Known about the structure:
heterodimer; A: mainly beta; Ubiquitin-like (UB roll); 5-stranded mixed sheet; 1 helix; B: alpha/beta; 2 domains; 6-stranded mixed sheet; two-stranded antiparallel sheet
Amino acid sequence: xxxxxxxxxxxxxxxxxxxxxxxVKNLLEKMNINPVTVIMSRGNDIILENEIxxxxxxxKIMSVISGG
Amino acid sequence: xxxxxxxxxxxxxxxxxxxxxxxxxxxxxxFKTISQFNLIDKEENLGVALSGGKDSxxxxxxxxxxxxxxxxxxxxxxxxxxxxEGYRNKTIITAKEFCxxxxxxxxxxxxxxxxxxxxDKMLKTLDIKPCTMCGIFRRYLxxxxxxxxxxxxxxxxxxxxxxxxxxxxxxxxxxxxASARLGPISGIKKNRAFVPRIKPLYLCSEKxxxxxxxxxxxxxxxxxxxxxxxxxxxxxxxxxxxxENNNLGTKNAIVNSFLEILPELKEKYKFGEAGMxxxxxxxxxxxxxxxxxxxDRLEKAKTNS
Lengths: 68, 305
Ligand code: SF4
Ligand SMILES: [Zn+2]
Ligand SMILES: [Zn+2]
């Protein structure tokens, strides 16, 4: 399946190919993102790592780490 | 053992929480921190250092709830505009809108006006790590303006991650004296040169704060300062986050064990009456404060170039 992901400055979003029934956790692993450092949303709702993704999902990954 | 049947927004070590129950959990953690460490008295003219980022906005949001129930607690936000193009100008707009909406007075002080030079310009003039330069001037202005505005205390948005990083950084640099100034409240001595600082978000992780900010509509853009990648702190931060990911609870453990030895540290490094800067009258360890020293160097670099 194909989903659309936006991650911080890459706001436009990029398309990603994932296996059927892949979870948010799989997505983060594939993108090499430490889950401690982000929160994720689909539409206006936060989703957790065990959430199963669906074809055409639009996922936003937001980095939560801050300044010096 | 989850809270209820609503969709979940946060995963703790032993359960998942929905929007409503997470907000409840988060707020009660902050209020508990405030009472456990005696951060806020019944009557305060409380300054809130507001950057327009998620931590300080969340802090002000929760303190507004507290102030609404306690009319003798007055809130007053102050914002430091370092002059970081493409970053601070945006967060300041957020800060202004937020204060207007929540009816909190806000004062903004800029490096440009106070030091005749923006941080961007300073960094082009002198080769110093951005956060070192930025931090010295920000601490200076926050303390100076807090006194001018008669704040009884100044609340900052420091969270669990910030504190864990500071503790580890000070260890790595063999600087326990700096750690003695950490903790949820500092500068309580009857030293009028220094306005006490409190950190109500002390036990809340960065991820918890971001989640709370997002679900309560406080902020949904967590862009970070473009300078932060270069800092020593950022290295420690990334290391701790990797560690946390493999060993849940690491940051909590760092802060909790630190709290256990903090009283001894404070005793060992008792700070007497702070000295006074000959040039500006602010707190100084010798006869000139760090900000004035740095301004001298900037002035020299400027005339030499
Ligand atoms: S990250 Fe560094 S340079 Fe940027 S605002 Fe924070 S202290 Fe200043
Ligand atoms: Zn619930
Ligand atoms: Zn000075």
